[in-house]
Amino acid sequence: MAGLALAGSAMPAVTILNPNRAFAGVNSETLKVGLIGCGGRGSGAANQALKADPNVVLHAMGDIFKDKMDSSLENLTKVHGAKVKVDEGHKFIGFDAFKKVLDSGVDVVILATPPHFRPEHLTAAINAGKHVFCEKPVAVDAPGVRKVLDAAKLAKQKNVSLMSGFCWRYHEPKRASFGKILDGAVGDISAVYNTYDTGTLWSFPRVAGWTDAEYVLRNWTYYTWLAGDHIVEQAVHSIDMMSWAMGGKLPLSCVGTGGRQVRTDALFGNIFDHFAVTYEYENGVKGFHHSRQQANCENSYLVETIGTKGRAMVNCARNVHEIYGQNPWKYEGAQNDMYQTEHNELFASIRSGKHVNDGEFMAQSTLLAIMGRMAAYTGKRITWNEAMNSTEKLGPDTYSFDMKPPVVEVAKPGITAFS
Description:
It comes from Dyadobacter sediminis. The chain is built from 13 helices and 15 strands. It is of the alpha/beta class and 419 residues long.
């Protein structure tokens, strides 16, 4: 829920007119977009949606914080002018704002609230027959992942598009690199090493008049029930690319460690500041994940795939895409704005009627990260089946600014139980 960086960077069934004819170059029908979650990522996604098609308008917005919505609306209007058509009757504030956006006559919705709310919002949107752009991660616990998988199946039945916020899947250098890996350029894979080591995150100091719930919700990244911890909320990008390299093959189990070395103050909620997880696949293949959020340390954001014929390096921080060994190769093609490509392809799929559905892989990658968190929090080996069938549900079922937010102790490996 941060500010908007525009320079760079549920409901009646949707009506798709003439769904069997291609819309290439034809924009006679206006597609109305609803934004649910008006922070930085949501606002950025709305910006990209408005650029993705000549006949798209922003029709409705929803958030729990009026100041976030007002800032987002102001910035989007400055950039897109008349394509922003959000009147006073289509600005919705509150925990039920998502329902009002879905009931407002929109065709496409952007889901960009904190991840805890994603399964409920996605289910409502698909039930209403809306096309969806769904930010990652898609849940913070296994019950949420199962709910997302059900929604993804329903999206196929309803013939609506469901696109994930796993943006690297839409980056042309990554598509080329992982395409090579899957075509056998490095041979049989023996290991995939991936990192997401960064500095610290933003936080908002408490303001007079905020309730405990408002403070927690404004600083949602530091609370596992809202964000899933940083291995789920942020490092899931690298874990998703590991899964991509593995062709979507699921691990048998994982073991992990982690903790709080630096961010020990109550300011940082109950999340860890570092993780190290080993995913174990069939035939002894390993996936090694490392992530941390600690200031003044060496940063790393890469995926290295090692096989019997060589290794492939995908370095997100340095824009390196290269294969070494028997089949040397280096990406030298065009670069693209992956965030924009996501929305270009989403709206093209809606226009053509050839609907995209990222539901299965976005749910599986999210669970891979949750599985790693489970292993690190408990200190136990966690199997894929245990993770998928976990009954642990994080957070409350109802919300208000007067509620007492969940108080969860920092996990202690060997003491914290798996459920």
